[in-house]
Amino acid sequence: MRDNRLKELLGAGETAVNAWLSADSAYLAETLSHAGFDSVTVDLQHGMFGLDGAVRLLQAVSAGPAVPLARTPALDAAVIGKLLDAGAYGIICPAVDDPVQAARFVAMCRYPPGGVRSYGPARANLAQVPGYVEQADAQILTWAMIESRAALDAVEAIAATPGLDGVYVGPNDLALALGVEPGLAVPPPEVDAALGRIAEAAHAAGVIAGAFASGTAAALRLTERGYDFVTPGSDMAILRRAAAEAVAAVRGTAVTTAPSGGY
């Protein structure tokens, strides 16, 4: 098993930039892995593919220097185990609302006696390595998503969950949970305050503060707030924005597409 370069980078206090893959395209996955991102997250929750597609995409990301991660569609030990067996070096788990769920999530990513993960690494670069169990437990990263009012209310306890590596904000779902409009380029005060509280909770617990952003400007604002693991938009949002900017530049007109949304 390779060393997790993303874990090393974050452990050194550096900011990591993550790509988000929702298209069922191994070509795009490999391209993103070679584009300078520190990691690429294969999104099995909202991505346009199933588990078979996720395996192909993880393989494609692994062909480049970016660290392959995955977002599981739910707190499901079977799916999380398959994603790890397929080569994900970290899991982002949605809808973690309390420290009990956070502890269950961590256990699903760790082998006994510290967890409940079943043994069965399928990829050759995992299964043929002596000491894989110990390496996997040491290398695989875990993020609990904070995207509900319940999770926000419990964020300090969630962040302090033993073995959890970080929290990750789903800003649009969090905005909906707080009763405000999602997808705004500048977060409303309720979401901005929540972002500050989440970052403070992560720093107090000594874990990674991660978040999805609606573009580069929003990602920079997050880093200024202390977030050290940021996603500056999804693959399709970045492609759509770049395409619209290219068309506008050639025509000499204003960009007509709406700003990127997020998950």
Could you please describe the fold and organization of this structure?
The protein has 13 helices and 8 strands. It is of the alpha/beta class and 263 residues long. An 8-stranded parallel β-barrel has the order 1-2-3-4-5-6-7-8, surrounded by 7 helices. Helix 3 links the parallel strand 2 and strand 3. Helix 2 packs parallel to helix 3. The mean pLDDT is 94.
Give me the CATH fold name: TIM Barrel
Query: Any idea how many domains?
Result: 1
Q: What is the succession of H and E elements?
A: HEHEHEHEHHHEHHEHHEHEH
- What percent of the residues sit in helical stretches (DSSP H or I)? 40-55%
With strands numbered from the N-terminus, the spatial order across the biggest sheet is 1-2-3-4-5-6-7-8
The protein's oligomeric status is single chain
**Number of discrete helical segments:** 13
According to DSSP, the number of beta strands is: 8
Largest sheet: 8 strands, parallel, barrel
Average the pLDDT over all residues and give the rounded result: 94
CATH class: Alpha Beta
Taken as a percent bin, the fraction of beta residues is 5-15%
**End-to-end Cα distance:** 31 Å
| Architecture per CATH nomenclature, i.e. the level-2 architecture | Alpha-Beta Barrel
Organism: Actinomadura mexicana
Keywords: Lyase, Metal-binding
Family: Belongs to the HpcH/HpaI aldolase family.
Domain HpcH/HpaI aldolase/citrate lyase: 20-240
